[in-house]
Amino acid sequence: MLIIFIYYFLSIATLWACYYFRRSRFTEKDYKYNKPLRWKRRLLIIWTYLFAAIHGSIYFRENLFNNVDNNYIRASGAFFMIAYIVAVCWVEDIIHPFDKKKK
């Protein structure tokens, strides 16, 4: 039961962190000159890819969790895998709006 709680807590916390980075309204200066902020964003993206791989392995019953027979956990694995793909695209697109500004 504790493992399932940790699984869902980390899954939701990762999505919440992606939402925070997208909606924090950091400026171009923040990403240009604040190295810790850039590294936090990079680590978040790597963490999200790692969790997407874990959720994919849960959904497809490959490698990590071969004996998962609970269909609800497999369905949530599919949901979180799709949500993480959207979240990564969302977080990686933070810098690009600054490139499209009119000069």
Describe the structure.
There is one protein chain. With about 100 residues, the protein is mainly α. It has five helices and no strands. The model has no long low-confidence stretch (mean pLDDT about 75). Helix 1 (about 1-25) packs parallel to helix 4 (about 70-90) and helix 3 (about 35-60) packs antiparallel against helix 4 (about 70-90). Keywords: Membrane, Transmembrane, Transmembrane helix.
Q: Radius of gyration over alpha carbons?
A: 16 Å
Count of discrete alpha- or pi-helical segments spanning 4 or more residues: 5
What's the story with the biggest beta sheet?
Answer: none
Helix and strand sequence: HHHHH
Level of helix content?
Answer: over 70%
Q: What general form does the structure show?
A: elongated
Unreliable residue runs: none
Q: Calculate the mean pLDDT score and round it.
A: 76
β-strand amount: under 5%
| End-to-end C-alpha gap | 56 Å
Structural class: mainly alpha
Tally of DSSP β-strands: 0
